[in-house]
Amino acid sequence: MRALVVYESMFGNTRHVAEAVARGLGPADAVRTVPVTQAHEENLSGYDLVVVGGPTHAHGMSRESTRHGAAEQAEKPDSGLTLEPDAESEGVREWLDSLPSGGGRAAAFDTRIDLAAVLTGRAGKGIARKLRKHGFELVADPESFLVDKQSALEPGEEDRAEQWGRSLAQQVASGSEEVR
Ligand SMILES: Cc1cc2nc3c(=O)[nH]c(=O)nc-3n(C[C@H](O)[C@H](O)[C@H](O)COP(=O)(O)O)c2cc1C
């Protein structure tokens, strides 16, 4: 199985989760992980599974204004946050909007604060909706990976992400055609 993991990340959490999902999906020579700023160069039809993840901002996918807000947060003295390269470039929302209609199998995830989803919102739901709109069949419900209030991944979340990647690979291998 060939898989592509596309991620957006301001502070690194979603990148770490994306890398863990990729480890779970399969061997490194079969799974490619790219930041969303490089995703335009990918031919999605060349993959058996496309996994897309981003941080939850203002209850959904980031926008230019929220990415700017995140950059300002990171620049504050003692924030303890480091901005990812190209953090203020386009996010998964804009990339997904620019995709031609296609098809194939996909899954969505987000990172968000460790509180009830009804309070935090979940970017993964919006990502999943846009993937479906572009003709993708989702092989799993969107998943969230949790950070604490200081924007650090909660313990065990990378392991859970790797496990989620393994379960996605099994889902694709078993040829399930469950549409969500
Ligand atoms: C501008 C901004 C808005 C945010 N809004 C939300 C939110 O509505 N719900 C939530 O759960 N987390 C929110 N967060 C927290 C991020 O989802 C969380 O820190 C995430 O792990 C960041 O991922 P990253 O390190 O890959 O950028 C927000 C963070 C920023 C910077």
Automatic annotation (TrEMBL):
Signal peptide: none annotated. InterPro entries: Flavodoxin/NO_synth, Flavodoxin_CS, Flavodoxin_dom, Flavoprotein-like_sf. Residues 3-169 form the Flavodoxin-like domain. Residues 61-78 have a biased composition (Basic and acidic residues). Residues 55-92, 153-180 are annotated as: Disordered. GO terms for molecular function: electron transfer activity; FMN binding. SUPFAM superfamilies: Flavoproteins. It comes from the Bacteria. This is Flavodoxin. The lineage of its organism: Bacteria, Bacillati, Actinomycetota, Actinomycetes, Mycobacteriales.
